[in-house]
Structure formats: structure tokens, C-alpha cells
């Protein structure tokens, strides 16, 4: 009689269960370690609607935020790494005040802030008023990439990576969504808009939208449409859910305060390398700015004459970057604006138009 324990079938069964058990251990260990890293970065902070960001009412931060200032993602190593922080606009690289709200990307306008941060493998979007009270929270699957609040604070547009996690990785995929900041309601995914190019409908299965930027009319915005190796500057009409191609080769647009120019990252001849540049909406002239380091950011306008952007330090772990200032006419080299920082948002008129329902 053949023993059951020594049969080929039993041997394969044991091997199968052993492999399953090993895989479960590896998977569980990965989840545990990932959760540990996530918790250490976030310091186990959770916010709900109606709560106020801890530290927001501290005297030092309150005084700072009553003056023109810049909000940003703090990247100084330590307990406050990755958190929302503030500095004076008069001395941006001076003392900073950090909160415990984790932000990968943030934008502020008219007393409204939208902060995109990690949340258990998803993105967590917080809509906050000028008191840093949470009014709405939305969850979305993906890695935070870009966010902008409209100039009147009524709308926000955000972009998430849904495949890969960088514009430098082949095969990345994005999703860009418009949100009503007053109600927290999702208005539309840009892929649901009808695109037009050369006065004809335009569509392809590989459409990707990213980098929304608003003008004074919140129903009008610009963004990037990526398709077939092109990065088109497009103008969007929220009311009619229509998108029109404006120009080619303009990526991650940012509309100037006077609404005459687009700051963007321009791809160079080198593979996966971009430089800051300016596109004049009237003349369609391009000015490439004098910073040859690779840029992967949505530029922020400091004023009509200067732009801000983050440059990542290659190979740094955890991720390190600093924010640099550059004249928009390209006549001067870049200067350091804030060290160990990313995603700057300039606030020149604090305390205006807090979030309300509408």
C-alpha cells in the first residue's frame, strides 16, 4: 500500500499551502511596515468635518497668518515632515510654523484651502476655511499630483495619479476632477467634457488631463491634455462642459495674476527633463526661463513679475525639495525662496471670503 503522506499529490498540496502561508506572511509584513511608515509620517492625525487643525489658534501662527504669507508642505526632516506649514511673505526662509495636517499638495485662494494628503492607500482631500476649520472631506483612489482653488474660492480642481506615480514614468495615468468647495460636491471629471481641436470634436482613448488653473471667472480654466505624445494647453468651459485646444507643448499651466500669460514646464530635448517657461496668451510667444535643473511642478505666481516652483533633490530619501523664485521675463537666475519645502501657495490678503454654502 502506498502511504498518503508520500504521494505526489499530497506533496504538491503541502507545497501549495506552504507557499500560501509564506506569501501571507510577506504580504502581512509589507502591510504592517507600510502602515507604520504611513502612521509615522501622519502622526496618526485624523480630522472630521467641523474640526479645526490643531495649532491653528496658537498665537505665533495666528499672528503670522494675519499678514501676507505663504503656505507650503514642510520638508524639514522630523516630526513635522510632510505637514502643512506657514512662513511670512516678507521673510519666507525665516521662521516657519508647522501644523499636524499632512499635505502632499495644497492651494489657497479667497480664504479657502484645499489640502490633498494620503489616507489608507487613497487620497484625502480637505476643504478648509480661513480659520483652518474642515468643511468637507473627499476620498479618491490615487496619488495626489496637482490642486488649485479658483480665485473666488468657489471651485477647486485636483489631479490624481491612477497608474504610476510620476510624470517621469512611462504609462502614467491621471484623473482630474472639479469640486464645489461650498457644498463639497463633485462637479465633473474633465474626461466627461467634450474636447475640440481645430474647430472639430477631438477624442482618443489615451486622453489624460492634469494641472488645472483658474482665471477670475471660475467657469473658465486651463489645463494640460496629454495624448499621443502631445501635451496640449487646453481652455475649459465649466458651464458648457467643453474643452478647446489652445497650443501644443505646454504642460502643467499656471495662469498669471493679470491673466495674460501661462507659466508652465517645457520639455527639453533630454529625456524626461523640463524647464520653467512662459507662454503669452496673446502673442503665443514662449520664453524659456534660465533654470536648467529638471522641473516637475505646477508653478505658482508670486506676483506678475515672479514665479515660484519646487526643485527636487535627486536621490534624497525621504523626498527633499526647496522652493525657488525666478523673474518671469527670464532676466535673472533663480534664487532660493524656501528651503525644505514644496507646493507653495501665496496668500496676500488673509481672512477674505471664508468657505460658505452656495
Q: What are the main properties of this structure?
A:
disordered N terminus; Neuraminidase; about 10% helix; single chain; six-stranded mixed beta sheet; 26 strands; 2 domains; 2 helices; mainly beta; about 350 residues; four-stranded antiparallel beta sheet
What would you note in describing this structure?
- The N terminus is likely disordered.
- The chain is built from two helices and 26 strands.
- It starts with 7 loop residues before the first helix and ends in an 11-residue tail after the last strand.
- The radius of gyration is 23 Å and the shape is globular.
- It folds into two domains: 42 residues; 297 residues, Neuraminidase (6 Propeller), CATH 2.120.10.30.
- The relative contact order is 0.12.
- A six-stranded mixed beta sheet has the order 13-12-17-16-15-14, with no helix packed on it.
- The protein is 12% helix and 45% strand.
- The protein is mainly beta and 358 residues long.
